[in-house]
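User: Design a sequence. Structure:
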């Protein structure tokens, strides 16, 4: 299971930007792995497509009619981003099967709730395609809320137990205060957010780490750079990468 983080697929300082080159290069690696029998689920974040729109309309919490326009526009731009990624990866030979997250997830009691049987996703994989979900605006107890790619990774990871889960960003891992990659990160090693560099300008690093730590209870979990194809390949072959950060639940 692989998540293409917002910073890996877009420049968050430029609204509606798309890093097609990075996505295409990742796709060439995944095609090779796919042909050897490796199978994946992909998840991607919203990056510079979702965050400006969600911020402008205050979609962190539903309040009034005007936000329904924001729901529509945010859903639309996320669908555009998903189609861009689908086309990039499909054109290099990876059979992507996009799933609109807002059609199969809701947020209930503050937690993601999958509306379809997890086996349906497995059946898609068995049919030879690569299911791809993404962070989206979904129905919730507060009318509408944002479900993040990290939320999806944790929910699907706990249900499907993949052999490995990889969070891809634009940096080679979680960095310490000297700028060096932390090879392994445990709950005990985290004191506070100031002990690491902030890698997500739109959200708390600690929330991302907490999701990854929880996911590590069910699957080998890493954070790598999208351009570090060697490390990604090693993880997919059940080997330890020379770079990246591995999250350990204990």
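Assistant: Done.
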């Amino acid at each position: 299971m692989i998540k293409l983080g917002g910073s890996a697929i877009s420049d968050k300082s430029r609204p509606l930007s798309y890093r097609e080159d990075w996505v295409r290069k990742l796709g060439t690696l995944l095609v090779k792995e796919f042909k050897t029998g490796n199978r994946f689920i992909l998840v991607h974040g919203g990056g510079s497509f979702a965050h400006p729109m969600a911020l402008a309309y205050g979609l962190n919490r539903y309040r009034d009619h005007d936000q329904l326009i924001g729901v529509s526009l945010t859903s639309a731009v996320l669908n555009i981003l998903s189609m861009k990624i689908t086309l990039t990866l499909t054109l290099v030979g990876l059979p992507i099967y996009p799933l609109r997250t807002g059609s199969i997830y809701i947020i209930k009691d503050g937690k993601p709730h999958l509306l379809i049987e997890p086996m349906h996703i497995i059946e898609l994989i068995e049919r030879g395609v690569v299911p791809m979900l993404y962070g989206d605006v979904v129905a919730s107890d507060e009318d509408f809320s944002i479900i993040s790619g990290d939320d999806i990774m944790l929910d699907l990871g706990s249900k499907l137990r993949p052999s490995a889960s990889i969070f891809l960003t634009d940096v080679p891992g979680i960095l310490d205060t000297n700028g060096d990659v932390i090879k392994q990160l445990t709950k005990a090693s985290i004191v506070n957010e100031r002990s690491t560099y902030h890698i997500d300008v739109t959200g708390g690093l600690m929330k991302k780490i907490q999701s990854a730590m929880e996911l590590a209870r069910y699957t080998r979990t890493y954070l790598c750079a999208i351009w570090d194809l060697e490390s990604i390949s090693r993880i997919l072959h059940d080997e330890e990468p020379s770079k990246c950060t591995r999250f350990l639940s204990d």
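The longest strand covers residues 164-169. Residues 192-203 have pLDDT under 50 and may be disordered.
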